[in-house]
Specification:
The protein is of the alpha+beta class. It is built from 10 helices and 11 strands. The chain has 2 domains: 2-107, Winged helix-like DNA-binding domain superfamily/Winged helix DNA-binding domain (Arc Repressor Mutant, subunit A), CATH 1.10.10.10; 119-265, Chorismate lyase, CATH 3.40.1410.
């Protein structure tokens, strides 16, 4: 028997997708038909609309970055006031189920499976998997010496020279992933000269240093984004977001890259648990106690 479990992180992101009006109108009618409001209920109409839309989002009736609906159109179709629609939308926005640009709301949720995170995935491929057009902007690049604080978290030796690069990866021109990457210049002399926007970094390491990436250790945390990073994503200071720290190793078990990545998206992680295997492991563990 296999059980599917969902883990929800309610995080926010600021983005805008342009689509043809006719398509949005079709989607609007399709979704509104699924919304049921009971005027006899003691629950306010705005609260009912909030609950209905939240259920539609969690049940995956909306796609990633899909426009919800125009408040005036939604109010007219449901026979309620724009104020009641605004209250429902604003609550979903405050809880980061929706993002907002001007007066338009978009769904802020994407589904990932555990298989997606079980292997090394290029950032560009991750963005393409979200049906977005990837691009990258290099924000900063410099050579620095490792201090005690950086050494503790990265495992690079104190005093060694690193190439530090901050890159912002975008989908459809909007910020999705911020990466702070560190490379050991003792292993990769002149890397600063070889690195460019057109060639993936791992390809550059292979072409110039015959380095093959073999494994990566990653830790995913949910954090409150600091002010400078929140500003990059156009979200409020201390908005909940992801922080991913990664250590990447080559074919000789040498640490070649340390990365801290940030994202301000809302994801659903779905993975499968084999109950029989868990029960068997539990029995073995108890036998060894």
């Amino acid at each position: 028997m296999t059980i599917k479990m969902n883990h929800l992180f309610y995080l926010s992101h600021f983005i805008h997708l342009k689509q043809q009006n006719g398509r949005w109108i079709f989607m609007l009618k399709d979704k509104i038909q699924m919304i049921k409001l009971d005027r006899r209920s003691s629950l306010s109409l705005s609260s009912q609309l909030y609950n209905e839309l939240k259920s539609l989002i969690l049940d995956r009736h909306f796609t990633y970055r899909e426009k919800v609906c125009d408040k005036a159109q939604c109010a007219k179709a449901l026979g309620i006031t724009e104020i009641e629609v605004s209250k429902a939308f604003d609550q979903l926005h405050n809880e980061n189920f929706l993002i907002k640009e001007d007066d338009t709301y978009y769904v802020n949720q994407y589904d990932f499976s555990s298989d997606f995170f079980s292997r090394i995935v290029k950032v560009y491929d991750a963005i393409k998997a979200m049906n977005l057009e990837p691009s990258m902007e290099e924000i900063q690049r410099k050579i620095l010496k490792v201090d005690h604080a950086l050494s503790q978290k990265s495992k690079f030796k104190v005093g060694s020279k690193l190439l530090y690069v901050r890159r912002l990866y975008k989908g459809n021109g909007q910020p999705l992933i911020l990466l702070d990457s560190y490379y050991d210049l003792e292993l990769f002399s002149n890397l600063d000269q070889y690195m460019n926007d057109d060639t993936p970094i791992y390809q550059t390491l292979f072409d110039h240093y015959q380095t093959v990436i073999k494994k990566s250790h990653r830790i995913v945390d949910v954090v409150n984004l600091p002010k400078d990073i929140a500003k990059i994503f156009h979200v409020r200071n201390q908005t909940a977001g992801f922080k991913v720290t990664a250590e990447t190793y080559n074919q000789y078990e040498q640490l070649v890259e340390y990365t801290e990545g940030y994202s301000a998206d809302n994801y659903v992680y779905e993975f499968e648990i084999n109950v029989k295997e868990i029960i068997q492991d539990y029995k073995i563990m108890n036998q060894n106690i």
